Amino acid sequence: MEGQSLKPIRCKAAVCRAAGEPLTIEEIVVDPPKACEIRIKIICTSLCHTDITIWRVKGENVIPPLFPRILGHEAYGVVESVGDNVEEFAVGDAVVPAFLGQCDSCSSCASEETNQCTAVPFVVGPGMRRDGTTRFRDSQGAPLHDFLAISSFSQYAVVDVNQLVKVDPAVPPPLACLLSCGASTGVGAAWRLAKVKPDSSVAIFGLGSVGLAVVQGAKMCGASKIIGVDLNPDKETIGKTFGVTDFVNPSQLGGSSVSEVINAMTGGGADYCFECIGVSSVMTDAVRSTKPGRGKTIILGLEQDGKPLCLPSLEFLLGKCIIGSLLGGVKPKTDIPILAQKCMDKDLELEKLVTHEVGLQEINTAFDLLLQGKSLRSIIWMDK
Predict the structure, then answer these.
(1) What tens digit of pLDDT does each residue of 295-350 get?
(2) The domain 3-180+349-381 is classified under which CATH number: 3.40.50.300, 3.90.180.10, 3.30.2350.10, 1.20.120.80?
(3) Minimal CA–CA distance to 317: which of 289, 299, 292?
(4) Rounded CA gap, 335 and 339, in Å?
(5) How many helices (H) and strands (E) does the chain have?
(6) What pLDDT was estimated at residue 362?
(7) pLDDT digits (tens, 9 = 90+) for 80-107
(8) How does residue 1 score in pLDDT terms, banded at 50, 70 and 90?
(9) Alpha carbon 119 to chain centroid distance?
(10) Contact 273, 290 (CB under 8 A)
(11) How many CB atoms lie within 10 A of CB 32?
């Protein structure tokens, strides 16, 4: 179905009415796609720490609170209908959304140095990228704010053509879902951004799902020493199933700093450090743990309180480098299909990130599991 003949769809969605409150399952209305948009049926979605961050935002913050809202951005679905001027997708295509666009026409998309499209730039604020309006309404007709122009905690969602990626339908839905954000972010940070070299040393600060995906990316690239850093002692065993070779618990160092321990383990500093938590003091530790002359620190975590990253200039005079990361440097339309094939070929074992599966009605259970540190990724099946 295409163009003006399309009609609104009524469906179920998990709506966040206020910061930190349980989501409510409501009947909502999803408007038809406009030009250059696609409406997709969400088969499954998953809960990312970014969703948690937005869900509990109150008052002044890096990201302002905005409710009522439909969260979710990591998902797998099929095309239900397309708007005008859409040639790349057809009804029935298996797809995943991405919070970064890729138009393949602007100078940024043509560049090997960035994955941040300038034609459809990344924004955290609400509204579709092209017109700033929402495609969601509640049962009373009131608008519902979206998130990252995706909002996958709904059985149907409207996505810009530049934010949608076609995937092989043979890829298992949970795996494709993970590749739409967290898994690609982690693997891509090692593979695309840092360009980890064989026999190199790597330290990953924070072994949540993104950090463990970095572990998989570093292993895929041939790193010989992969150090996991986490305060949770249980993460040592978990990390080693993903490829961690050494583990550091900052609370058990007997007065030594994390950087001192990593410098000793690596003969002067790791070649690459990845900060996957979003705490400025940990970012500082990561930079101090890299090797002078060529060490790279990749920042994947968002400092939620807006605290600055403070480092002496000597760290940079020594030739160390800090690189910021959005989606791990991955160009969605180009790289997500490549990563999906690597998973199918068993070069990556990202399916191990899935620890729980629930239905849409149990979505608050997925929140509880993540908040309690009992899950990595929970897959939420939209029709269960």
Answers:
(1) 999 999 988 777 888 899 999 999 999 999 999 999 999 999 999 999 999 999 99
(2) 3.90.180.10
(3) 292
(4) 6
(5) 11, 17
(6) 98
(7) 999 999 999 999 999 999 999 999 999 9
(8) low
(9) 21
(10) yes
(11) 20
Range list of H helices, the chain: 49-55, 107-110, 173-179, 182-188, 209-221, 234-242, 258-266, 280-288, 314-317, 332-344, 363-371
Report DSSP letters for 248-261, one per residue: E-GGGSTT--HHHH
Where do the structural domains in the chain lie, given as residue ranges?
3-180+349-381, 184-326
- Tell which CATH architecture fits domain 184-326: 3-Layer(aba) Sandwich (3.40)
Distance set, CA 243 to CA 121, 133, 220 (Å): 35, 44, 9
The number of angstroms, rounded, from the C-alpha of 236 to the middle of its chain's C-alpha atoms is 23
Q: Pick the closest to residue 62 from 231, 275, 330, 280 (CA basis).
A: 280
Alpha carbon distance 171, 106 (integer Å)? 30
What's the DSSP call for residue 23? Answer: P
First to last CA, the chain: 26
Output the six-digit token pair for 157.
């969602």
CB atoms under 10 Å from CB of 116, counted, come to 19
| pLDDT at residue 62 greater than cutoff 80 | no
Whole-structure pTM value = 0.95
Other Cβ atoms less than 10 A from the Cβ of 325: the count is: 24
Closest CA to 321 of 292, 289, 296, 287: 296
